[in-house]
Amino acid sequence: MVAATLSACGGESGNGAADDGKITMGFSQVGAESGWRTANTDSVRKAAEEAGIELKFSDAQQKQENQIKAIRSFVQQKVDVIAFSPVVESGWDTVLKEAKDAGIPVILTDRAIDSPDTSLYKTFLGSDFVEEGKKAGQWLVEAYQGKSEQVNIVELQGNTGSAPANDRRDGFAEVIKADPKFKVIASQTGEFTRAKGKEVMDAFLKAHTDIDVLYAHNDDMGLGAIEAIEAAGKKPGVDITIITVDAVRDGMQALADGKINFIVECSPLLGPQLMDLAKKVVAGETVPARVVTEETTFTQEQAKAALPQRQY
Ligand code: GZL
Question: Which residues form the Periplasmic binding protein domain (predicted)?
Fold first, then answer.
């Protein structure tokens, strides 16, 4: 009778999956703000299909309240596992406790949260953004080795309050503070988009006539800034040194064309690892608390060589 009741209610077959063994994942995506995000969504969708995992996908349009609503909806739908890329670091404890109380495991992918309660999620799969900022800073320090005059830097930050914005800012600052000639003369969010990146860079150019370097937390803001720099009659990559993060196709093309000087890769291809972790978590297996994605950096010459093989 009990077995019949369980199956009648779509109960679990013991390994956490539905009776037909098919896992259902609720996935809350940040939005569709950048080339990186599009590539990440494609990777997740393709990997879910290949893994035979049913994906319930929600696009939050970069709003935390939409992600919270989506997670609540996944809990009500009794999905087997929830995965999401938190648009900002804070404000998740309440909704993640609801998922925990419902016995639904949560996987953080791409971005982390700042809650001290690590029992709210099983693992965090994503890049080390502090390391990405450090790599950007290290390239700049080497590029300006031996020069003594002040180097004026403007910074286009990602979404305010997001882990990549906070960490890429901090990692970069930590490295360049070693040499007092490096000065960040302006820093503002470009919201990870081309349009906002162009708008803010235009304002920077109007306020400062002596910009030497742009550090943009993603390619898309860098590409928008390039439009503003050219509109101001300056040569991107020559008059203003440009460093970005991501290494999506359009960014790599600008790097190969000499309009960007250095790109730190941030891989969006998290789908296969995410589905592998989801299967293990649903089966009740132990998974590492932190899975760091492997990634590299690109100079202009390296971009020319790498472009033909780029997947995104
Ligand atoms: C980084 C990711 C960031 C990308 C941006 O993992 O969260 O968000 O760097 C994207 O391009 O918008």
Answer: 27-285
181 Cα: distance to centroid of ligand 1 (angstroms) = 29
CB 124 less than 6 A from any atom of ligand 1: no
Helix intervals (H) in the chain: 2-8, 35-51, 64-76, 93-101, 129-143, 163-176, 194-207, 219-231, 249-256, 271-282, 300-306
Q: Is the CB of 246 under 6 A from ligand 1?
A: yes
pLDDT at 13 over 60: no
pTM: predicted TM-score of the whole model, two decimal places: 0.92
Average pLDDT for residues 199-225, to the nearest whole number?
A: 98
Q: How far is the CA of 36 from the centre of ligand 1 (A)?
A: 6
Residue spans per domain, the chain? 5-127+267-294, 129-266
CA of 30 to the centre of ligand 1 (A): 9
Nearest-angstrom CA–CA distance, 276 and 173 = 35
Same fold, 5-127+267-294 and 129-266: yes
The per-residue pLDDT for 19 is: 62
Q: Which CATH architecture has domain 129-266?
A: 3-Layer(aba) Sandwich (3.40)
Q: Is 218 in the pocket of ligand 1 (CB under 6 A)?
A: yes
User: What's the angle, vertex CA 311, arms to CA 109 and CA 62, rounded to 5?
Assistant: 40
Does pLDDT of 311 surpass 90? no
pLDDT at position 62 is 96
Report whether residue 164 contacts ligand 1, using a CB cutoff of 6 Å.
yes
Q: Look at ligand 1, atom 6, and give the residue with the nearest C-alpha.
A: 110
What is the distance between the alpha carbons of residues 278 and 291, in angstroms, rounded to a whole number?
Answer: 13
Q: Ligand 1 centre from 53 Cα, in Å?
A: 24
| Architecture of the 5-127+267-294 domain | 3-Layer(aba) Sandwich (3.40)
The tens digit of pLDDT for each residue in 34-77 reads 999 999 999 999 999 999 999 999 999 999 999 999 999 999 99
